[in-house]
Amino acid sequence: GGGGGGGGGGGGNRQQGKNKKQSLLDGLLVLPLSTQSGKDGSDDIGEPYDQQEEQQEEEEGRQQQQQQQQSPRLVVGRNSRQNDRVTFSVARPSDRWFHARGVPGAHVLLRLDPGQEPSDAHIQSAADVSAFLSKARGHGRASEVTMASPRHLKRPRGAPPGAVVILDNQEEVIYGDPERGALLLERAGDA
What we know:
This protein has helices at residues 13-25, 51-67, 80-90, 120-132, 178-190; strands at residues 29-32, 73-77, 96-100, 107-111, 143-148, 153-154, 165-166, 172-176. By secondary structure, the chain is α+β, with helices and mostly antiparallel strands. The strands form two sheets. A six-stranded antiparallel β-sheet has the order 1-2-4-3-5-8. It is globular. The termini are far apart.
């Protein structure tokens, strides 16, 4: 019999491109994030709800749905090979990359469409998940998390998978709360 191993030649390039994108995400943890921050009450506890403001938000939400291809989501690597894939194969220039500072941990990618800016809530969620999925989680308090653009990340020559250098100190430090990260992962698991 013939050998069916490697994917065919010519005609199916468009489909192969789709499959390649999907296969890059295979095995990775992907968490969708809400496009409506504060709706769960976390940002505005005790604030009275203004009906006119609610109607305006609904209209903006409809416009966003029409314009926006995908809501932001987190893509998480949970071992050194997955971390390497998240950082150097999946990441796009429009994304943001997160990692707990000074300790081993997951590489967390906040996926954004080109031109889309992350909300403070999305950045905080990514930092919280990063803190939880690191050796810092056992400390039970907020930990420092690095945020950088994938454009500023480089794999050191000869380094093992998952090793990263941030070029020209192009990073921000955010404090992630491991407990909030655990809750976010728990909620995503229930969905």
